[in-house]
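Look over this record before class:
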Amino acid sequence: MHSVIHPDFSAGAAQVLPWLEADPVSNGLQIGIIQAIVDGLLVTDQPPLLAHVEDAGRIVGVALQSDTYRRLVLSAMPDAAATALAATVLATDRRLPGVIGPVPAAGDFAAAWTDLSGQRSELAMAQRLHRLDRVHHPDGVPGQVRTVQQVELELVCAWATAMAEDIGLDAGDRDPRLAEQMERRIEDDRMLVWEVDGEPVSMAGPSRHNVGVVRIGLVYTPPLHRRQGYAAACVAAVSQRALDSGATTCALYTDLSNPTSNGVYRRIGYYPVCDAEELTFLPLRP
């Protein structure tokens, strides 16, 4: 079992994408980032890292790091693959603030990384990946969904920043090109809000279609408008739009420490696929 880092990102993408696309729901995050970089839609300040692990000539896992996700993004992989990958990535001297991936791969990588680097790891968020094939629309929620307009760029950027603060995302882990990414989303009609009496009260952003899957993210409702069903209505409507536009499945991640949001998404048709972990690497305590 050995790991390979791809100095030519496009060539590496051509090698790993067919393996990732065999499970487009579980691997949707990696597929989306890789495809955006290859297509020139995601510009990074430093070269992204793309690696895979082989066993007897077969790919058994993929890892990716970019400016968008500064933590290493993992696919599922055997524990021995995670160990081999940690040694290879450490040898690059690349700064790695943490790792995100399915259970148990993320924990296996973190254990190997901390053993080799002398750092320690800390759980930042326990997550669950969900999928949806048919929407159950909530009843009795006033308002309607619409696309965000360019004049609302400042609003959705502020909401995205507030969302990052709510989940405890460190400033260094946030997308340094948030405004640029949001502007592109708005141009592509991939940023939507739920509107009540002319006022935006909740937002959600679908990804591009990748192998029939659309990921739903950037779900946020300001505190003033919470507990009124707006987020559920917004996500349901955005998910329906994705299915109507040709997607076969929608996917989203939830924070396992928030039973309210997990329950909301179940009621509109999302069901669990796998659990994931986001871990942060820190210096050893003195």
